Amino acid sequence: MLPRMEARATVIVLGAGAGARLGEGPPKAFREVDGEPILLRAVHAAATSPSVAAVVVTVPAGAEPAAEAMLDGVGAPVTVVAGGATRQASVRAALAWVPATTPIVAVHDAARCWASPSLFDRVVRAVADGADGAVPVVAVTDTVKRVEDDRVVDTIDRRELRLVQTPQAFRREVLVAAHERAAEAGVVDATDDAALVEATAHVRAVEGDIANVKITTPHDLERSAAGGGRG
Fold first, then answer.
1. Phi, psi at residue 101, to the nearest 5°?
2. Which one, of 123, 164, 124, lies nearest residue 140 by Cα?
3. Is residue 116 predicted with pLDDT exceeding 50?
4. Which domain holds residue 164?
């Protein structure tokens, strides 16, 4: 178990995606919800968590100065770097800026701009208490079917299923090694970091937040603008 002082993490906030499914406009992280950029909301939650010592933010290449100005004085120290062409590439780019002495790294999608500071604390504490990684989850409430073409072929027992969110926290060396293995194996399309870690490490599920929705489509943006992210 890591002592409380060592439990403070560096958080990687991923904001380099173009957000093509949102339609024409600025990159997703620079879209606004209730008059504030998505990226600012996401970074503020991380930077004000008591378990977070620093934040590394990825944005589209060329957008670094605008992001730095936006995030000035947000809380914990923030470093802005250019992201990559894929989610994994952006995480790897950000990891290069995380000091080797950092015991815990959390990865968060800026598109989940309604995450709370306490959620960051929850996943970081789970790793500090002994897990190799920790992910926030919420229960699946809908009936789940497996479909082939247009034919329903099975009903899946949802009692063992969970929807996974970010932020996700990991021991730094576990996350770095997982990304190195993925690069060597040619894996480029993992949808979250736990997918790269869970086969070889202990990833703990912790309580998520149903308000921690992800902005992907124009409908998501409209719902968040109407306060949907907070219930």
1. -80, -5
2. 164
3. yes
4. 4-230
CB atoms within 10 A of CB 104: 29
Is-contact 135 175, C-beta < 8 A?
no
Q: Check: CB of residue 137 under 8 Å from CB of residue 8.
A: no
What's the number of domains the chain is made of? 1
CB atoms within 10 A of CB 151: 7
Query: Which tens digit of pLDDT belongs to each residue from 156-188?
Result: 999 999 999 999 999 999 999 999 999 999 999
Residue 95 CA from chain centroid, whole number: 14
Q: Which of 136, 141, 118 is nearest to 193 (CA)?
A: 136
Contact 15, 110 (CB under 8 A): yes
Domain with residue 94: its CATH number is: 3.90.550.10
Give how far the C-alpha of residue 129 lies from the chain's centroid of Cα atoms, to the nearest Å: 20
Q: Which residues contact 136 (CB under 8 A, 6 or more apart)?
A: 119, 122, 123, 164, 165, 166, 167, 168, 205, 206, 207, 208, 209, 212
Those residues whose C-beta lies under 8 Å from the C-beta of residue 75, and which sit 6 or more positions away, are 44, 46, 47, 48, 55
How do residues 45-66 score in pLDDT, each as one tens digit? 999 999 999 999 999 999 999 9
* Cβ atoms 16, 82 nearer than 8 A: yes
pTM of the predicted protein model = 0.93
